[in-house]
């Protein structure tokens, strides 16, 4: 390890002394003014992780749905997954080492993780459209090359596209070609094949309005559009040409305010969706004939997807185990519907897609979505092989179902939740089933709910258990919350420290919006 080169270059990306940041659920996120040293150091860390795993590692520069002034960075592990927890700790330690301690930290991590320093390293880099992202991806590359690593800079990409690239590169091209073109082709081919079978839903051409949060999703969807235009035409709004990233638009805005984004005309019963700033989340919505807004969130996406998959399996005559993974934020009605009506086992994990992703990998077919619209469906290798075999062998309706399922497997991003991929899956399912957004929405009725943020001096005073549904500390708080919950019908409430913002999040649901609001308010007072 040429520590001289590392130190010399580090001076160009010097850490503001005393600044402490943490690798959270979505990597590092902060105001862009605080991040240059983090970018350089994550380039260094990616080289060590690449040497240790003898694989390509990804580094994505983005702060997703945060304001334009923020930025962030996260590492992507060999199978396109989030970074392993022990390395998250190394990331935090490396980020917070003062300049003179940096070489010692690097040596320490290499020793603890038994990194073979002679091994080659390869790192792929992607970035979103933020003004600070281009310079930051150069800082990452500076880190990579300071430690002698090789790299490929993909430039502008959605987060899930970079996950896809890493997965492709580490599976010998079996999953797909590790190019943007390869991504477009793989997904579009599966989508067009699928929707060809939807002739029964009439010949009217399908259109969808997409709010792109003024982010990278707009650029990529524009490029990709021509590949799937036979099956769907998309109308893009908030495409970044006028508005500000994530400002009054995007999936996070729509979900948390439960209202439509600015910058998009919505006529009654038009199907609309929103991506977030790095296009890994998607929510749907529409206005009914009375002009009322209806949100179709990640929970309803999970329900649509798992019911479609179950129907196909029944048709094919295969009995794979299908599971749905949610978090505490899943609407109580969705959990009840999945368990009681659809008879699908439902599991709850801690917030953060890495937890859901890992749980979903335990099933033959694992569908996971956070209520905010971040998710995908995972298929075990054995299931994928079996289905693709059956798609060749079976005939008639069984054969048709097996072919559909084979295409659905190809259409879902197996590395990460992906707004573009999810959008195409949803559009294909709606077309195949001949469903309107209203009919989809009517599967069950969401319980009214409210999310609040509470600023506290130190959010770490609250710790939780039972997939964040129960408070452990401070003592007594859980009892207060439980007592408040008992005063409402169909109610539930929990609090947890956010992993991405310096706040405590409060969630409540109840039989009416007024009651959900009031329960959330009372719980937030108890947190103070
Ligand atoms: P935090 O800030 O830990 O609540 C938020 C989202 C997560 C996840 C991460 C990463 C909610 C309530 N929380 O986490 O689901 O998406 O950001 O982006 O939506
Ligand atoms: Zn995102």
Automatic annotation (TrEMBL):
Residues bound to substrate: 370-372, 496-500, 505
GO biological process, one term: UDP-N-acetylglucosamine biosynthetic process
Keywords on record: Acetylation, Carbohydrate metabolism, Isomerase, Magnesium, Metal-binding, Phosphoprotein
Organism of derivation: Octodon degus
Record domain Alpha-D-phosphohexomutase alpha/beta/alpha: where: 51-100, 119-167
Alpha-D-phosphohexomutase C-terminal domain boundaries: 475-524
Domain Phosphoacetylglucosamine mutase AMG1 stretches: 178-283, 297-434
Keyword Oxidoreductase among UniProt keywords: no
Name by which UniProt lists this protein: Phosphoacetylglucosamine mutase
Cofactor(s) needed by this chain: Mg(2+)
The encoding gene: Pgm3
Record-level Gene Ontology MF annotations: magnesium ion binding; phosphoacetylglucosamine mutase activity
EC numbers: 5.4.2.3
Residues at the active site: 64
Pathway in which the depicted protein is active: Nucleotide-sugar biosynthesis; UDP-N-acetyl-alpha-D-glucosamine biosynthesis; N-acetyl-alpha-D-glucosamine 1-phosphate from alpha-D-glucosamine 6-phosphate (route I): step 2/2
Binding site for Mg(2+): 64, 276, 278, 280
General function of this protein: Catalyzes the conversion of GlcNAc-6-P into GlcNAc-1-P during the synthesis of uridine diphosphate/UDP-GlcNAc, a sugar nucleotide critical to multiple glycosylation pathways including protein N- and O-glycosylation.
Pfam family, one: PGM_PMM_IV
Note on cofactor: Binds 1 Mg(2+) ion per subunit.
Catalytic reaction equation(s): N-acetyl-alpha-D-glucosamine 1-phosphate = N-acetyl-D-glucosamine 6-phosphate
Recorded family membership: Belongs to the phosphohexose mutase family.
